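hey team, just a heads up i'm posting the complex here instead of the shared drive bc the drive is being weird again. everything in one block, sequence lines first with there labels, then the predicted structure for the whole assembly after. its two chains so it's a bit long, scroll down
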Amino acid sequence: MDSKFPGKVLPYIFLLPTIIVCGMFIYYPAAMTFRASMYQSLFFGAREKFVGFQNFTRLFTSPDYLRSLRITIFFAILVVAIGLSLSFMIAVLLNRKLRAAKALRISLVWPYALSPAVAGTIWLFLFNPHSGLVNYFLDTVANIKPDWFSNPKLALTMLVVTAVWNNFGYNLVFFLAGLQNISDSFVEAAEVDGAGFWVQLRHIIIPLISPTTFFLLVININYAFFDTVGMVDVMTKGGPANATNLLIYQLYKDGFQNFNSGLAAAQSLILFLFVVGLTLVQFRTTGRMVHYGG
Amino acid sequence: MNFRNCKVLGIVLVAVLMLGAIVSAAPVKVTLWHSMGGENKNIMDGLINEFNTTQSEVEVQAIYRGTYPEVLNAAIASARAGTAPTLVQIYEVGSLAAIDSGVFVPIDEFLTRDMVDWSDYMDAVFNYYQVAGRQWSMPFNSSSAILYINADLFRKAGLDPNNPPSTYSEIIEASKQIVESGAAPYGITWPLHTWFVEQWMAEQGAPLVNNDNGRSARPTSINTDSAEMKRIFTWWKQLYDEKLWINAGVEDWDQANALFMGQQVAMEITSTSDVTFLTQAGKEAGFEVITAQLPVPDEVPRVGVVPGGASIWVVGNKPKAESEAAIKFLIWMSAPEQQVKWHKGTGYFPIRKSAVDLLEKEGWFKENPNFEVALKQVLDTQSSIGTQGALIGRFQEVRDILEEAFQKVMGGSTVDAALKDAKTKIERSFADYNSLF
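-- predicted structure starts here --
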């Protein structure tokens, strides 16, 4: 049976709404960003001058920018690795038949309802070196009161904790859904065969949940690269001495504070290509290990 | 056409005419974007509400749009999109960006000499917003940096709060005494903010940038390698190294106030716009707050401060009626009576001489000496290139870079190296900016 679409024009008419929306909100801005990256500009293009690739050469020869790049990669690795493993472990524990499972789930998921800026504000209070709960606790237990804002390593630690906490609920929901989709028959069969908890985890649960893990990996990398700008702004403003100046925050500062949209456009292109590249590599490598269906 | 139709037509005509009358009597709407948060927002809303209810020609709608840099940015962006408000409150250092953006018109285009008496405005304030012979905006909230003292902690440390430290070395000595006596864990705090550096440059009569502090032409170099700048950084570094100054965070005004109110420090340097708030907060927390002049370097005579704060700018390309209504509001807002209320409610100093007279007549400063210090510091300011304040297009970037420089110093870099690095970055930013004009 050969079911062909009638006419040559009709399919395009059906596609038109999507094309218009994508064109207006994705392709046109992307093209404008590409154009803007070739210009020195002020006040959102009110004044501009063509400079070719100067914005890019500037960025790649700037020690500050390269340092931000390294910090961002390090930050992303930490956020993704800690975030995913922690939420996976908790999800496995929560997936058992617990009495307070529902209440626990809700209380663990709610941080996701907060925007990164709000999460930043909350942790800012907790990490306050002089009146925050974290230091109060550390002072009582270990008699130390670290200055989370003035030490580069501590400041980055603080951001990682906040970012992991903020995105924890999201990861948990997906892991829980993934775990509940694993048919009981596999687990029961394994139990009959005498497989213990760790063996089940390694040979059944982790392979079967790999599509979810893979999806979360991509989402979390995007989160670490793009969604953390509000958090940084609230908590450290990129300091101390640029130690937490993530790429996206530098972009925000150049674009929306220094009126330098050309440089910001170049940065957003770099960031875009970087994340696209990373995602493609993941599909090529990690993606092969993923089992769909089962 | 029969009689019936005529009647209907007549009714419609009358209705249209009446509607027209109502429309023309409706007040002209004026929108204002501002950055006054917290308690100061309530005072601002109160004033605007009073204006709206006491006359029927103009209706002002005020919207809080975030911090100063955010408001400036939002205003320029919205003007590009054609959705700008009528009036925008812009912080002092945003002035050159506001002018260069082409979004605003100088206020003297609407204000003739008989509408406002500029000679009644404080010289320091008036001078700041005077660029290339034109009055660009209506001064509104002006402030400078002063020293706040927790008098109870001072006495506890064996210091005399009525003889406050006034120089850099006195601040160090007093802080040492506070910490050693155990009165407070740290001596002093202020937000890690370049604004204070700007104030201390002015106190030494030194311009921040070249070309007459950016007043005769857009600046091309910054005086971070000057003796004045090094003096500031060296002293600040010593306070930090000896654990006498505590870092309240980058541009974090609230945190600095929290440290002072939490009695973690016995002194705070911050804006005069917090006089009302901190005096009151001290009272509630059970300690006495005394204000003193901004401490200055030992070696140089006190020249004066730059009027910080903000002014209100008029957006161009608006209907004439709207702009004129906005001007009416601005004249009212900067009138002595309103300035008196604004000053009492916030601590921003009154920008008009007649407002100061009003306050003196009712004995306000005698009863509230904390406010007098703030005002006196501005009145004593000598007119110079340094105290007129710098004009820089990307001023916020300069502030960022200098804040980063001090953070590097805290991380172990030398003052010279950090300032040299800052100079290179800032001057490249100047060159980029200037190349677009």
